[in-house]
Amino acid sequence: MTGGEFQESGKAFGGSRGTRTRANLPGRFRTGIRIGRIALTAYVLLMLALLALPIVLVVVASFQGGMEVASRPDGWSLSAYEAIPTNYWDALWFTIRSAFWATICALVLAVPAAWGLVRGNLRERRFVSALVLLPDAVPSITLGIALLALFVPLGLSNSFAGITVALTVISLAMALRFTEALMGGVPEELEQAAVTMGASRVTALTTVVLPLLAPGLAIAALFVFVHNLVTFELLLFIAGPRATPISVQLFSDIVDRGVLPQAIAMSAILVYVGIAFHTLVAMTVGARYLAGSAMARKG
Amino acid sequence: MLYGKLGQRVQVRHLSKSFGKISALRDLTFDVEPGELVAFLGPSGCGKTTALKTIAGLLPGHGGEISFGGERIDHLPPNKRNIGLVFQNYSLFPHMTVSENIGYGLRMRRWPLERRAARIREMLALARLEGLGDRKPGQLSGGQQQRVALVRAMAFMPDLLLLDEPLSNLDAGLREDVRADMRNIQRRTRQTTILVTHDQEEALVMSDRIVLMNQGRVEQIDSPEQLYSMPATEFAARFIGRGNILYGTYLRDGDVDAVRIEGLDAPLSASTKAPAVGPAGSPVAACIQPEQIVVSARNDAETLKSRWPRAFIATGKIVDIAFHGGSSVLHLDVEGAGVLKCRRPATEVQGLRFGDRVAVGILDCHLMPQSE
Ligand SMILES: Nc1ncnc2c1ncn2[C@@H]1O[C@H](COP(=O)(O)OP(=O)(O)OP(=O)(O)O)[C@@H](O)[C@H]1O
Ligand SMILES: [Mg+2]
Fold it and tell me: Which of A226, B28, B137, B371 has the fewest C-beta atoms under 10 angstroms from its C-beta?
C-alpha cells in the first residue's frame, strides 16, 4: 500500500526537475519545455473533463429537470427530485440491501480463500488467480444469460436471494483479487510468530492477520459495494417485478418513456451515494489507503 | 522461580530436511543442556534457518527426532511445542502494544489476567522497557524492538528459545550493547537457547557451545575456546578465520607431532592435532594462530632462538603493520611460506616499520585434515 508515497515522490520529482531546467538550460530549449508543460497540463485537464463532464452533466441536469442544459440556465429547482416515484426509492433500497449483503458474503468467502491461496503455496495458485479474472474477460451480459438459465429452475430468478447471489458471484472476483493482494502484504512470519506462541492457525488469522487487513478490507468493501450498486447487465435478465435493482428500473423506464427528469434525478442520487462512500472511507482510513488500494487492484 | 523454570535437555537426533532435490539438513545431531546457549554457526545457505524452523515445527516433512527431557515433540504442531522463536526481523505485531505483544503467548495459554499482568511487568523490567508497555512497536528503536521480541518469546516459559540472527538488523554500534544485554538476560533466566548466526565473533562471545554447520551437516560441536584453538577441520579453521593456514605432510617423531611444509627447510612442531588427522605421511592443513608467530626487531635470528628454542626460524619482510590498541597486527612475507599474519603486544614490535626485513619465528601450529 504505497500508492500515497508513490504520488508524493512523483510530485517531488516533477518539481525538482522544473527548477533545475530553468536554472541551467539555454533559452530556446527552456521555451520548448515551457510549451511542453502547458501542453501536458492541457492534456491532463482534458482527460479530467472527459471523465467528469458526463457526471457533472447529469448532476446539473437533475436540478434543471431535463437534459437540455444550455437552453434553461435559469430553472434551478428540486422538482425532479420531488417527482421521483416510490418505486424508484424501493428499487434503490432493494439495490443497497442486496449490494450490501453481496459485499459481505463476497468478502467472507474471499478472506479464507485468499489465505489458502497465498499461504498454502498451492501449485494451482496461478491457475486459480487467473480463473478469478475470468468474469472480467467475459461480457457481463453473457454471465447474465447463464445465470438466467441456472436460476430459473432453482426458482432464484426474480428474487432478492437471486440478485444477491448473482452480485456475490460477480464481486467474488474483485474481492478475491483485493484480499489476495492484501494478504500478500502481511508477512507470513507474523503468523508463524503467533503460532509458535501457542495460537492455532485460525487464531493467528483472526488475532493477527485480520486486524492488519482491516483497513484494506474496508476499502475493498467500498469498491465492491459501489460496483455492486451499479451492476446492470448481469442483473438485466434475472431481475423482475419482485426484484428490481435501480439500474434495471432506470433502464426499462428510459426505454419505455424516454429520459424523464426523475430518472436523471435518481442517477444523480447514485452519483451522490458513490461520492459519499468514497469520502467516508477517505476520512476513516485516510486517502493514502484509497490510492494504495487502487494500485493493489490494478496489480 | 524468579524468571522461569529451568528447562529440560533438548536432544536432536538425525534431523534431515530437503526441499525437493536440495537437502538442506543432513543428519543433524546435537544436544542442548538445560540453561545452555548453543550457537548455530555457518556460512549463508548452510541450513541454519531451516534447522530452527524444523525444530519449531514450521517446516513439516522432516526426518529425525526431537525430544525435550526424553519426550518426543516432533509429532506436535508448532503451537503445542512450547518453543519461543525470535525472527531476524523481530515480527512484532504492529497493531498491538508492547505489553499486548509480550502477553500474546500468555493469552494463548489462558493465563489468568493478574498473573499475565505480573509476568508482563516482569518481562518489561527484564528488558529494561519499563514505562514503554503502552507503545506500539513502531514507536520503539531497533534495539528496543529487539528486546521486546526477545522477552515476548520468553514470557510463556518455553522449553527452548530459538533466535534467528537476532542482531543482524542492528547497526554495528548498537550490536555490541544488545549482544551484552541478551547474554545477560539469558544468563539470568537460564533460558535454554539456540542462537543462529553467521558471525563468528557473535558465536564465540555469546555461546557456551557452538555447532559449526557446513552444507546442512555438523562440522564440529565444541566450546568456543576449543573451536578457536583446535578446529577439527580446515573448514572450521577457515570459518573461525583467525589463523594462517599452510599445507604440508604430517610427521611423527616419537611423541612429537610436526608438519613438513613445502618450501620450508625444517618441520614445524605442532602441539595439537584434530582427531581426524590420518597416519604419519598423510596430507594435513596446519593452522598457525597469529599469536604463535614472533618477530625480532633487529634482523637477528639469535635472540629469537635463545628465547624460543623450539621455534622454526625464517626471514621475512613486513608488508603491512597496523596498531590495534594493546597489540599490533603485522603481515609478514615469509620466505617459502607466503604472507602470514602475526599479532604481538605493541611494546614488543616498537620501532618496526613497513618494509623492514625481520627474523620470523613460528612457535606452534595445530594440525587438521585438509578439506577437498
Ligand atoms: N522454502 C525453501 N524452498 C527451497 N529451498 C529452500 C527453502 N528454504 C531454504 N532453502 C534452501 O535450503 C538451504 C538452506 O537454507 P537456510 O535458509 O536454512 O540457510 P541459512 O543457513 O539460514 O542461510 P542464511 O545465513 O543466509 O540465512 C539453502 O540452499 C536454501 O536455498
Ligand atoms: Mg537464515
Answer: B371
